[in-house]
Amino acid sequence: MALTSALRPLRLAGQSSTAWGRALDVTGSLLAVAALGWWVIAQATVPDDDAARAAETSSLRDLLPRARETTLGFYGGVPNTRPSDVSIQKSDAHDFTLRDVQWEGKPFTNPIYYGVRTARWLTPRSGVLLDFTHSKAISVRDVQHTITGTLGGKPAPAQGTVDDLFGKLEASHGHNMLTLNGLLRLPSITARLSPYVGLGAGVSLPHMEVDIKGEPRTYEYQYAGPVGQALAGIELRLPRVSLFLEYKFTLAPYDVPLSGTNSSDFLPQDLWRQLQAWLSGAEPPGGRLATTFTSHQLIGGIALRIAPAGP
After folding, report:
1. What's the whole-model pTM score?
2. Are the C-beta atoms of residues 267 and 221 closer than 8 Å to each other?
3. Fewest beta carbons within 10 Å, which of 166, 236, 295, 301?
4. Of 111, 79, 121, residue with least CA distance to 242
């Protein structure tokens, strides 16, 4: 009995080892059968050399730029907005300029930098692009700036920070730009790589947040003026989709009415309210803000290609 009891653990271990061994044998056999089946099917469907070359040529032809091709794209990126002067004018109150305000883009902080676009190629080399970019411009608050003009009807201090004068000064829910661009594909580098350039114009539709200390906050979507855009990029064409890397330059002069309105966060309603105020001829209660956002942007994205039927 003592010997039997002593040997039981070894017997159980041996049975367990045997079970594992059987499982491994079965698994190995199944993998071998699957590999053999795959090899047989592959051999049976391998085309001859002429057919293979024809298929490869057809595949490359499908990657070449085509007329009447449409793309739908999405991208992210990193903006760099150059310092600019910020001017505030309000009748009988303010007429001052804060020199060389610095701007941060914070592209990976919610809301992130992103863009959506659609392009239509009229020929293999030329087309049009409708492009929407959501960027941000957030003032750096603790840098000393030269100030000129009057503040509150009195001479403005010679020096000061954004934090000294403003509770908020930013387009953080969007230095938004909608542009229509002409596109030109340059000679392709390979069947897959196509450089391109573009030039266009459109409108700035920012969501501004501005409040001069002691005055009501303006927090709404607005039409702020025209915007110009130039771009240069390279497209990597894969089956059905393209990857692209692009440099964009945008120039957006802003003329912002300081309405003192808290937004509905609904762009059409905000723009309608702005239009009604403009038609009335009434001056914005907070005056007007003027600046120019000059931005360099590096973007990368993916686009779905919708090709026309036929060759």
Report:
1. 0.78
2. yes
3. 236
4. 121
Residues 98-106, mean pLDDT to the nearest whole number: 95
Q: What confidence score (pLDDT) does residue 62 get?
A: 61
What Rg value do the Cα atoms of the chain yield, rounded? 31
193 CB contacts (<8 Å, ≥6 apart)?
234, 235, 236, 237
Q: Which of 254, 286, 264, 260 is nearest to 137 (CA)?
A: 254
Average the pLDDT over 104-124 and give the result.
94
